[in-house]
Write a structure and sequence with these properties.
It contains twelve helices and 17 strands. Helix 4 packs antiparallel against helix 5. The chain is an alpha+beta fold. The strands form four sheets. Strands 12, 13, 14, 15, 16 and 17 form a six-stranded antiparallel sheet that branches. The chain folds into four domains: 42 residues; 103 residues, Rossmann fold; 104 residues, D-amino Acid Aminotransferase, Chain A, domain 1 (2-Layer Sandwich), CATH 3.30.470; 63 residues, ATP-grasp fold, A domain (Dna Ligase, domain 1, 2-Layer Sandwich), CATH 3.30.1490. The N terminus is likely disordered. It is globular and about 65 Å long. 38% of the residues lie in helices and 25% in strands.
Length: 369
């Protein structure tokens, strides 16, 4: 019956024969067309794995970032899969809470009914292995695109000493610094002579201000070093710059590198520590209360650093504005994306929803592939 009516439709339309097909056949083919269109739309949705967690003290913050990304990604364009990368295993976490192990050979996993091969990975891991290059290198080896910068750039920027050494050679203004490793003889007088007081003691490879101390006198220096050693065997000690602390997000859109409006950080504590960042002990004012000239200088420097380090994805660079000039502190290649974080606030200040902003990052990753 269907074949006969289909022939009648063709004859009526193309040959002009006086054959009138049944109206129902039009409804039938209309229904088939709609269903096929819906099927093609669903099948064309990209599979996006949002990775979160990590192996460092920052894993809980990363889980919050990942949850925000999963909630915000456009579900009409993407099938979104939360994936936990933890010391006890790598798992896709289904809506019912069930865990499905990741096949590390190709980063595929079961969603309970079929095997899923992600088209791209949205990286929200803070600290190792997602911010120091290991995870990026793994994904590059197996050919899965991801939203953050490349493995070398991630490793370089995560190592504060190495990053500062590179940028200083390009004339980027930075604080004076002193380096020590666990097991080295600690000469307190020599440290103070080099960096002065107050100074900041930091783990060389850590984030979210874990292990960081502000030291105001000599007696505080050794305990601060021991605290930093709990996070890393390498420590960096820097001069305490006096000025306005600001943070600048940078990303790419349609090949253009864009710096977002700087955020001024006013901590209730001695500095922008973990409590200030994540427990509401600070004011984060966007746009920063600095002059237009200072704003342009720090945005320009953030873009220059992004270019010098050959970055991809979104970064957040921190500066101290001292006597009108931006002094670089550090750059983060998987910055926080939780509701308390700076980048989401800067995106909103730029007139973007998180859905729009995250879509830019995903599309950049898919285009890189």
């Amino acid at each position: 019956m269907v074949n006969k009516n289909f022939k009648n439709v063709i004859a009526y339309k193309l040959i002009g024969k006086n054959i009138k097909p049944k109206v129902s056949i039009f409804l039938l083919f209309s229904d088939i067309f709609v269903k096929r269109s819906i099927y093609c739309f669903v099948m064309n949705k990209k599979h996006i794995a949002v990775v979160m967690g990590g192996y460092s003290s920052e894993f809980e913050i990363s889980l919050k970032s990942g949850a925000v990304v999963c909630e915000s990604l456009d579900k009409e364009k993407y099938n979104v899969y939360p994936v936990h990368i933890l010391k006890d295993g790598w798992y896709y976490i289904a809506e019912n809470g069930s865990k499905h192990p990741i096949n590390k050979a190709d980063f595929s996993f079961s969603n309970g009914s079929q095997n899923i091969q992600p088209d791209a990975v949205f990286n929200t891991i803070h600290g190792t292995p997602g911010e120091d290059g290991y995870f990026q290198a793994y994904l590059e080896l197996i050919g899965v695109p991801q939203t953050s910068t490349g493995f070398y750039q991630a490793a370089l920027s995560f190592n504060k000493r190495d990053c500062l050494s590179v940028l200083k050679n390009f004339g980027v203004k930075c604080a004076n610094s002193y380096y020590i490793n666990k097991g080295n003889t600690i000469n307190l007088e020599e440290i103070v002579k080099k960096v002065g007081l107050p100074c900041f003691v930091k783990p060389n490879r850590a984030g979210s201000s874990f292990g960081v101390s502000k030291v105001n006198d000599m007696e505080q220096l050794l305990p601060a070093i021991e605290k930093a050693y709990k996070e890393d065997s390498e420590v960096i000690i820097e001069t305490g710059l006096i000025g306005i602390e600001v943070s600048v997000g940078v990303y790419q859109k349609n090949g253009e590198i864009i710096a977002m409006s700087p955020t001024e950080i006013v901590s209730e504590n001695d500095f922008f520590d973990y409590e200030a960042k994540y427990l509401g002990k600070s004011q984060e004012i966007t746009p920063a209360r600095i002059t237009e000239e200072e704003t342009e200088k720090v945005k320009s420097e953030a873009i220059r650093i992004y270019n010098l380090l050959n970055m991809k994805g979104v970064t957040r660079s921190d500066f101290i504005i001292q006597k009108g000039l931006p002094f670089f502190i550090e750059t983060n290649t998987t910055p926080g994306l939780s509701t308390e974080s700076i980048i989401p606030k800067q995106a909103r200040e730029a007139g973007m929803s998180l859905t729009q902003f995250f879509d830019i990052l995903v599309q950049n990753a898919l285009t890189k592939n």
